[in-house]
Structures are given as structure tokens and as C-alpha cells.
What we know:
With about 70 residues, this protein is mainly α. Helix content is about 70%, strand content about 0%. It is built from 3 helices and no strands. The protein has helices spanning about 5-20, 30-55, 60-70. α1 (about 5-20) runs antiparallel to α2 (about 30-55). It is elongated. About 0% of the residues are buried.
Amino acid sequence: METKQTAVNWLxxxxxxxxxxxxxxQSLEHKQYLDQLVEQAKQMEKEQIIKAYTNGSPxxxxxxxxxxxxxxxx
Length: 74
């Protein structure tokens, strides 16, 4: 199965194509903060996809997480 790309991953990729995400970022602290924001956005998006897949039913969570991992990668 071909892995698809989430919207957050697509955005990060496009930003890096225009100008690397870290260009102009001087401190390691700011780079780490950007990394945290990207990871938080990815986690939020994953939760939204899983919730939509399960239609809010917790009994389907494992199946939804498996779907996410197969479709978008870990």
C-alpha cells in the first residue's frame, strides 16, 4: 500500500522547498520550539483522522490507528 501524505507533512515539505524551515532561526531553542509545534500539529491531525475514522466510537480505536499507520506511516 502506498503511503499518503498528511496535510501537515505536505505543508512542512512545501515550506522547506521555498525556504528551509530553519533558515533565519538563530538559536537552538527556537529550532526546538518549531520542532515541537510541527510534532504537536502532526499529533493533532492524527487524532482528528482517527476520530473521523471511528466516528467517535472508542471500540474502533485500534482499527483506526492501524488504518492511520498503514495510510500515513507512523
